[in-house]
Specification:
Low-confidence stretches: none
CATH topology of one domain: TIM Barrel
Number of strands: 8
Shape: globular
CATH architecture of one domain: Alpha-Beta Barrel
Mean pLDDT: 95
Structural class: alpha/beta
Radius of gyration: 16 Å
Number of helices: 9
Order of helices and strands: EHEHHEHEHEHEHEHEH
CATH superfamily of one domain: Aldolase class I
Length: 212
């Protein structure tokens, strides 16, 4: 399954996109939606991830926006691996109380750590309350992809992908190795992460593979 990461600032256009895709991540830190907008979007009966990265809003506002999304029907809420316990733990409890799955996400925009370190981080994500662990690291050399994709040998729900130009192959391979989904951009010029492939290109690739 392909999850389109959206930073669309117009809620009406966002809803139009949701009619065309199976799954989406709504970047609440980038969209600037009101509470009412968030309610409309997360009531769309689609498989949606609520994400609100640090930087755009104070922590209290970020948590509020995520809770609004959860209440409206978010399938997943994404919480940062580095989030302090006083933020993360109440959000994990709140999400689980509302039957919303928790993604604990680890991002490394500089490099891909050793496999043993990636495995430790992945296991720690589950210890922190994750239903699904997300590992996304910068791929600087091709062998970094091997480390990332080796994580799929372990049990548990996982999305492990590489970032950057060299990491694109891991985004393509992830669903074939057991990833619950892989991330894509809406278009070539609307990526929310380094190395994201457009939904159209990635979807066509998967269609072509199925026809072989």
């Amino acid at each position: 399954m392909i999850c389109v990461s959206l930073a669309e600032k117009d809620p009406a256009k966002c809803l139009e996109v949701l009619d065309q895709v199976e799954m989406a991540e709504i970047r609440l830190d980038l969209c600037g939606f009101t509470d009412e907008d968030i309610k409309r979007i997360f009531s769309a009966r689609k498989k949606l991830i609520a994400t609100c990265r640090p930087g755009s809003y104070p922590d209290a506002e970020r948590m509020h926006r995520l809770k609004v999304a959860i209440d409206a029907g978010a399938t997943y809420v994404d919480l940062e691996y580095e989030a302090p316990p006083d933020i993360r733990n109440p959000m994990v409890d709140y999400a689980h109380h509302c039957h919303c799955d928790v993604i604990i996400s680890y991002h490394n925009y500089e490099s891909t750590p050793a496999l043993s370190e990636l495995e430790r981080i992945m296991c720690h994500c589950f210890e922190l309350g994750a239903d699904l662990a997300k590992i996304a690291t910068q791929v600087n050399v091709n062998r970094d992809n091997s480390k990332i994709l080796s994580l799929y040998k372990a049990p548990g729900r996982l999305v492990a992908i590489g970032m950057g130009e060299l990491g694109k192959i891991s985004r393509i391979m992830a669903p074939f190795l057991g990833a619950e989904f892989t991330y894509a951009s809406l278009s070539d010029d609307s990526a929310t992460g380094p190395g994201q492939i457009s939904y159209t290109r990635l979807n066509q690739f998967f269609i072509d593979i199925q026809q072989i």
